[in-house]
Write a structure and sequence with these properties.
Strand content of chain C: 15-25%
Order of helices and strands of chain C: HEEEHEEHEEHE
Radius of gyration of chain B: 20 Å
Largest interface: A-C, 165 and 116 residues
Radius of gyration of chain C: 28 Å
Number of helices of chain B: 10
Number of strands of chain C: 8
Helix content of chain B: 55-70%
Shape of chain B: elongated
Oligomer: heterotetramer
Strand content of chain B: under 5%
Structural class of chain B: mainly alpha
Chains: A alpha/beta, B mainly alpha, C alpha+beta, D alpha+beta
């Protein structure tokens, strides 16, 4: 979330799409209700189903699964054509005025410029700004070819990757035909209400009503009102997930809603600490704090730093903080935290202890690579990979081929018992050579530590009671395994033992590191006395760092994760703070726990003010420019360079080299195009009405094992199926909790009355849903809440499956379910940017079982 | 037709055989229990009765069973006496003269058979009353199983059950009064089974004639 | 509420007449309050482990942390001070008591041997030692120091780590440290899916 | 009210005066349920089950999100789900939390014959005292909302207590505390009526619900649980919320006129018979019987 949970109460307009917060985040959803109750905010829900959220909405629109970009693109078109955008915001806080490279081509035929059909990738060098400064009012003269960086192959070296221009061309009249704004207008002019209706199934009149209502916050140039967009994995879990979210972000930039109380683009994350896991780089392509992972071509630390540290790219008369400029400090401090004294300037801060990554090792690839024999051993700690899928059968088949599996869990789960999953005979079981260890771990109430919520708050929790039985703390298990491995390497030697032997592990109890001690390490400390040049605050060697501004690239600081720096300072554990006061009434709660970065609660909050630094809405003052003190002050921590005068025209989006928000995502930021384009889901019910010749995302990834099959309507798979959670259950966890089992005892499949009628199905009948990959059997819930839709002139049915059941659980063990997994159905196909699988929107057929 | 078998030694007449007596007393015991517990549920001022009988929970538990027993004995009475309880012309005359009966001028009464019209009324009153009490009692026994859309059954029952009970209480009081206080010998008749010849002649002259062979209104 | 006061109130609210009859005490108690089950329970502030709203929860356990008591959870409810949930919980948060106190919890380490058809018990020491040996063996057999172009890669593709959604930041950090030190690149988390 | 423990104001099946009746200055507590912001999440159901340590029961899928068809003796709080199509064709998914309404004039209490099995406290809470309950089930008949339910094993009746154990300690009921959207609210009846009124007004003026209103049925003297409904003129669509609930007429008749008639008749009958005996005495003297028998009858 750019904003926070409580902040939602400040909004005037909610667009909830790709998420069902009433179902999945009920306690956060209260703030949406508060906005309705206290501000008469309007709530628009766009979803394939009439959900619990829809039940309290002012307007509901049933959308075809996987057609979100078309809908949002239609909204962008509406905003531009009806002059509902925030002009000043757009000019100054986004790259609308920037002029794009002449070689860039919009995807009228489904492809952007630079597509290479052989490798199925884009050469993105044309997706760039033009060099050249102020072109305002000189649109007609802008014909000349911009100075292109021709990739001159010299000395056998690969061409230097294209970079953003230092002084991009821009046109403040927004009239330049290659200005981002004009390209944007052109791109989405194709997303007419009629086209929206064809693709999404939302009738034109209804779409126009929604568009008018949502964009009404900018009616007649008003800048006081604010609208928010709230989404969740209903957007993420598509092969077009990232681009959908980008479309929403662009819409919010157009409307000037980003950075403001009650605005923003708000991802509601699905679990207690996957925001933290992302921050901490529990994913292959990052290091903690969103540092990019090194690639083999980074032959040394310097090359690595040069590649990942962006240079400012902004009109010369503007300023850009370009905060990633500090990347070297973050990277060195991280390596110092990892390897301590073993990381020295001489050995490049132990840079080569880090593995180098030049290919995709993401979730679906783990299973694919295990299936193909590359991955031989796997740890699954609180992670039920078989049930989570996609394509559960493939994951089970992959585990059969693994040598060993170590599961750390609190309940018996599907993954640890894959070898006796339904359908495996006793003979077959004996042939499965995988050794499986199942280790009893501690439940949440038995552990302390911090979770990071969707609003980026790190909150310390306390252990309430001892573990039952012979359970152990997760960190103790990992520490013990690691220390034993280290012992083995010490004793026996082996392949490249250095990173193992030299990993900093100076915890008071090495076998069971205290998490408070670990949090201190993550926060970081200084090895040398230091002084802040402005405030003259002094730090002594060995003291905790007060914030990431103190980080150094000379090895005198260590910090496990720079964005968490400031969480555990000399003042103590700030994540455990419990002062709930909120003097501004905006729900900022500055002294409750700790919010990264630097305790800022609303990101990009500089954008809540006009150019002069005055809040757009005086009633919702977050930060502002204090002329007397010559600095930015406010109720929130300014997400900005505190002393940057408004006249300097520093962009509010300080993490972008441009300093402004990106309507156009240049270069390789996005794999499949600088502007989002609607492509059909991998399993598509229709051809893409925009360009039938290019129905799918040309760079979306599929897999090739025998378990990877993709269905089409021609094969009889003509019903769109989506999967989701219920509020009564939590993933594959609460099927072990009798209270939740009582609330919803059995798996079911939601389907429209018309479809049920057609198939002769009545509510409560057992039905079988099949995709080309597998089947799912459960009872039918026949409902009015999903209606048949007309998609591109064709009557289309959608069904929905809550996915909470498997083959181990209270109901499962009592024989009350069919022990099938919803993810037997889902395909292993991933978004090309975030590598998230397409759990939503695949094709199935349905019959009475 | 005479029924000399009714005449037993010592000049007495057998009025109720053992089965009849047993049935009567089973019904009486059941009814008294039903009455006591019922009254306890009827009025807070009498709730102590339930406590005295072992607690209100026990009373609530046994009341329906007692009701079944009562009904069974009434049914048995029906089997035994239904024929004899048929309404006759004499009964009509009896009712016309009931004021003499109630003022102890029995000599002005038309002759009654084995059961006079009042007794017949008592019998039928209890018979139909117990059916009503049974039906409504079953509803009240298991109110939780009466579906919501049939709740009118409960509503009727809570009214009919006590109303019927009150009706039977009225009958019961008169019955008790007659048996214990008004008609000397009646009580003994349901204990020992016999009455004196004089009793039979005085209160049930027609019956008397019948058994001694001076039948005026033959019975089958 | 202390017991003495409660008794007093019970008496105070007991109704009138009911004298002893035939030896029965006929006095019904008219306000039999169930004692507040958390009156003297111990409170621990925690965070709900389910979604990302991060509702504050208070875990009530019996005992006052005295040495001779094993705490047992008796109730979990929302933390009214928490700015986001303000004491509210969803049906999952409200059922946390049964998540903590759950007869389905795994209580001892188990192993399923190759070809095995059931779980076998294993001691912690054995399990850790076997796992460590497998990790080392797998790593030694498959560690890649340089790629085809001669670039240093120092990576281990044959071991994967899949982390859960409820792992704390600190645990995740230790995972990153240990796994990256081993060279693990198949490092993923619920965050992806 | 926080420390002002529950005092009894009405007692079922009770002879004599009621301690606490009219002697206590106290405000009436009230639960406000705004159905227009209820998302049917069932947090209240779980909170109720968890706080009251209610044993788990079996449920089966019933083509609905609703947990079970109706409340049970061990499930006091149930959200009813109804798919309702408005006249303009738009769909509504109505969710209504169903539980004891804590009527000001409780039909259950009126119908109950057992001394102290049902009490009403001065703060308006209607509470079942299972120790005094005799299991007759009259409360089931007395309730116009179909709330009291019998435990078939113990034969005692149970229902929502409004968490008397919490309320008496100054806490809000468990369901209220848990409600994520704040569609549940707890406070004095006056305050809740005001809140509900304002919310209804807002719905009428700012949303498409011209008939929004408050449900506080006068037929049972008002309730300790009030609803805000999208359409107060049609409460039946919310899973059969009665439009004008009343204590059943037969219960009123039975507990009112019939009771007096019956008492008068019984006492009158007894007196009448006694007077009759005094006036007329027995039908015959014993000696009469002895001398007039034709067979002598005496041995």
């Amino acid at each position: 979330m750019t904003n926070g949970w409580v902040d939602i109460k400040n909004t005037d307009m909610l667009l909830i799409m790709g998420g069902n917060p009433a179902e999945n985040h009920p306690c956060g959803f209260k703030w949406a209700i508060e906005a309705k109750r206290n501000r008469n905010a309007k709530m628009i829900v766009v979803d394939p189903r009439f959900t619990r959220t829809a039940s309290v909405a002012d307007m509901f629109c049933q959308l075809r699964v996987g057609a979100d970009i078309a809908f949002l693109g239609g909204l962008i078109n509406y905003v531009i054509e009806n002059n509902r955008f925030a002009k000043d915001y757009l000019l100054n806080y986004t790259n609308a005025a920037f002029v794009v490279n002449d070689g860039f081509k919009l995807p009228e035929d489904g492809l952007y410029s630079g597509f290479d059909p052989a490798s199925q990738t884009y050469d993105k060098s044309t997706w760039n700004y033009e060099e050249g400064g102020d072109l305002s009012g000189k649109a007609s003269s802008a014909k000349a070819d911009p100075p292109q960086r021709k990739a001159a192959a010299s000395g056998g070296k690969p061409p230097a990757p294209p970079r953003l221009p230092e002084n991009p061309a821009y046109d403040l009249t927004l009239e330049h035909p290659r200005s981002v704004f004009q390209l944007l207008r052109k791109q989405y002019s194709r997303y007419t209400p009629e086209m929206v209706e064809r693709i999404t199934g939302v009738p034109k009149e209804q779409f126009l009503k929604v568009a008018d209502l949502f964009t009404s916050v900018r009616k007649d140039g008003d800048m006081q009102k604010v609208g928010t967009i709230i989404y969740a994995v209903g957007w993420t879990q598509h092969s077009s997930g990232t681009q959908t979210i980008r479309t929403a972000a662009m819409l919010q930039l157009l409307l000037g809603n980003v950075g403001r109380a009650g605005g923003g683009v708000n991802a509601l994350r699905g679990h207690s600490n996957i925001q933290g896991a992302t921050d901490m780089a529990g994913i292959f392509d990052n290091l903690p704090g969103y540092l990019k992972v090194p690639v083999p071509a980074d032959t040394d630390f310097k090359a690595y730093i040069e590649r990942i540290t962006p240079k400012p790219s902004k009109p010369r008369v503007w300023d850009s903080f370009n905060y990633w400029w500090n990347t070297p400090k973050f990277a060195v401090s991280f390596l110092k935290a990892m390897y301590g004294d073993a990381a020295t300037q001489q050995n490049d801060w132990a840079f080569h202890y880090l593995p180098k990554v030049d290919r995709n090792y993401s979730w679906t690839y783990i299973w694919d690579n295990m299936y193909n024999g590359v991955v031989k051993g796997i740890f699954a700690f609180g992670m039920n990979g078989v049930a989570i899928g996609p394509d559960s059968k493939k994951n089970i088949d992959a585990l059969k081929k693994a040598d060993w599996l170590v599961v750390g869990e609190i309940y018996p789960d599907e993954t640890s018992e894959f070898w006796r999953s339904p359908g495996i005979s006793a003979d077959e079981m004996k042939k499965i050579q995988t050794t499986v260890y199942r280790l009893p771990c501690a439940g949440f109430a038995e552990k302390d530590g911090t979770f990071t919520n969707s609003a980026r708050w790190l909150q310390w929790k306390n252990a309430a009671l001892p573990m039952p039985g012979d359970c152990r703390l997760d960190q103790a298990i990992v520490a013990e395994i690691f220390l034993q491995v280290r012992e083995l390497y010490k004793k026996e030697g082996g392949k490249f033992p250095d990173p193992i032997l030299k990993l900093a592990w100076g915890y008071t109890d090495p076998l069971n590191p205290s998490l408070a001690e670990v949090l201190k390490e993550i926060n970081g400390k200084t090895f040398a006395d230091a002084e802040d040049p402005v405030t003259k605050v002094q730090l002594k060697a060995g003291q905790q760092l007060p914030g990431f501004a103190w980080l150094k690239d000379d090895g005198s600081t260590a910090c496990g994760n720079w964005i968490y720096c400031g969480a555990f300072t000399e003042a103590g554990n700030l994540t455990a703070r419990r002062d709930s006061s909120d003097p501004s009434g905006l729900g900022i709660h500055q002294n409750w726990a700790f919010s990264w970065p630097a305790n800022r609660r609303v990101l990009y909050n500089r954008a809540s003010c006009d150019l002069q630094g005055r809040p757009w809405d005086p009633a919702r003052r977050q930060v502002w420019w204090n002329q007397a003190a010559a600095k930015w002050v406010g109720h929130d921590v300014p997400d900005f360079k505190a002393d940057s005068k408004p006249n300097d025209h520093m962009g509010p989006f300080i993490m972008n080299p441009e300093g402004v928000g990106r309507l156009f995502a240049p270069l390789g930021v996005i794999a499949d195009g600088p502007f989002p384009e609607h492509y059909e889901p991998t399993e598509n019910p229709i051809e893409n009405p925009l360009h039938p010749g290019q129905t799918h995302n040309p760079v979306a990834r599929r897999f090739k094992t025998p378990d990877d099959k993709y269905g089409t309507p021609k094969d009889g798979y003509d019903i769109i199926c989506t999967t989701y959670r219920l509020t009564e259950h939590y993933h594959y966890w609460t099927k072990n909790n009798p209270m939740n089992v009582q609330l919803v005892p059995e798996p079911f499949i939601e389907m429209p009355e018309e479809l049920a009628q057609e198939k002769g199905i009545r509510g409560g009948d057992t039905v079988k849903v099949s995709s080309i990959r597998g089947t799912y059997i459960a009872k039918a819930m026949v409902t009015k809440r999903i209606k048949p839709m007309i998609i591109d002139g064709k009557k289309t049915f959608q069904i929905g499956i809550p996915f909470h059941w498997g083959y181990r659980g209270i109901a499962e063990d009592e024989g009350k379910t069919q022990k099938t997994l919803a993810n037997n159905l889902s395909p292993a196909v991933i978004d090309p940017n975030a590598y998230t699988p397409e759990f939503k929107g695949f094709l199935v057929k349905i019959e009475k079982a | 037709m005479s029924h000399p078998e009714h005449i037993i030694p010592h000049g007495r007449v057998l009025r109720y055989n053992l089965r009849e007596r047993l049935t009567h007393w089973v019904a009486a015991a059941a009814y008294i229990y039903l009455l006591s517990t019922g009254l306890a549920f009827w009025s807070p001022w009498l709730f102590w009765v339930a406590a005295a009988l072992g607690g209100a929970q026990v009373s609530r538990m046994l009341h329906p069973w007692a009701g079944l027993i009562f009904f069974a004995s009434v049914w048995n009475m029906y089997v035994m006496w239904a024929q004899q309880m048929k309404y006759t012309d004499d009964d009509r005359k009896w009712w016309k003269a009931v004021k003499y009966y109630s003022t102890n001028q029995d000599d002005k009464m038309p002759p009654a058979g084995r059961y006079n019209a009042g007794q017949k009324f008592l019998f039928w009153g209890f018979f139909w009353g117990s059916i009503a009490l049974l039906v409504t009692g079953v509803v009240l026994w298991f109110p939780e199983y009466i579906p919501w859309n049939l709740r009118f059954l409960r509503y009727l029952s809570v009214l009919i059950h006590p109303a019927t009970a009150l009706f039977t209480i009225g009958l019961f009081m008169i019955h008790l009064y007659m048996g214990l206080f008004a008609e000397r010998g009646a009580f003994g008749s349901v204990i020992r089974g016999d009455v004196s010849m004089a009793f039979a002649r005085r209160y049930h002259p027609a019956w008397y004639k019948e058994i001694v062979g001076e039948s005026s209104s033959p019975r089958k | 509420m202390n017991p003495a006061r409660r008794d007093f109130l019970k008496l105070a609210t007991v109704g009138g007449a009911a004298a002893a009859l035939f030896g029965f005490d006929l006095k019904p108690a008219y306000a039999q309050l169930r004692a507040l089950k958390i009156a003297r329970a111990n409170e621990t502030r925690s965070t709900c482990p389910y979604c990302s709203v991060s509702c504050g929860v208070i875990i009530y356990t019996i005992g006052d942390r005295a040495k001779n008591v094993t705490p047992q959870v008796v109730h979990v409810e929302g933390d009214p001070d928490h700015p986001i949930n303000r004491g509210t919980l969803c049906p999952k948060g409200a059922s946390l008591e049964q998540d903590i106190l759950n007869e389905r919890r795994l209580l001892k380490p188990q192993v399923r041997r190759p070809g095995g058809t059931d779980w076998e018990d294993i001691s912690w020491d054995e399990a850790i030692s076997e796992i460590a040996q497998k990790v080392k063996k797998t790593r030694d057999e498959t560690f890649i120091e340089t790629d085809a172009t001669g670039h240093t890669v120092n990576r281990l593709e044959s071991i994967a780590w899949t982390g859960g959604c409820t792992d704390t930041n600190e645990f995740n950090y230790l995972v990153v440290k240990t796994m990256r030190a081993l060279g693990v690149v198949h490092l993923e988390n619920q965050a992806r899916v | 009210m926080s420390q002002a423990i529950l005092r009894v104001q009405k007692i079922s099946g009770h002879a004599g005066s009621v301690p606490g009746e009219d002697t206590q200055r106290e405000y009436t507590v009230c639960k406000l349920i705004d159905t227009t912001t209820c998302i049917g999440c069932k947090a209240c159901e779980v909170a109720c089950m968890e706080w009251n340590d209610l044993p788990f029961g079996e449920t089966v899928f019933g083509n609905t999100y609703q947990t079970m068809p109706e409340t049970r003796w061990n499930y006091w709080n149930l959200i009813l789900f109804n798919e309702h199509e408005r006249e303009d064709g738009s769909l509504m998914w109505l969710m209504r939390k169903n539980q004891c309404m804590h009527c000001a004039e409780p039909g259950c209490l009126a119908a109950c014959p057992a001394d102290g099995a049902i009490v009403q406290y001065t703060n308006g809470i209607v509470d079942f005292q299972q120790a005094n309950c005799i299991g007759c089930g009259y409360c089931i008949t007395g309730c116009p909302f179909d709330i009291p339910k019998m435990n078939p094993k113990t034969h005692r009746v149970f229902k929502c207590t409004l968490c008397t154990d919490r309320v008496s300690e100054g806490l809000e009921p468990a369901c209220i505390k848990s409600c994520p959207t704040g569609c549940l609210h707890f406070g004095s009846k006056d305050d809740m009526l005001e809140l509900a009124g304002n919310r209804s007004k807002q719905l009428r003026e700012h949303s498409n619900f011209p008939n929004a209103g408050v449900y506080d049925p006068p037929g049972v003297g008002g309730t300790g649980v009030i609803y805000v409904l999208h359409d107060a003129s049609n409460p039946e669509v919310y899973g059969g919320l009665p439009k004008n609930p009343r204590v059943p007429w037969s219960v009123k008749l039975w507990k009112g006129p019939l009771k007096w008639l019956g008492n008068v008749a019984m006492v009158g009958g007894l007196i009448g018979l006694f007077v009759h005996y005094l006036r007329y005495g027995p039908k015959e003297r014993e000696e009469e019987d002895l001398v007039s028998g034709p067979g002598g009858g005496k041995t």
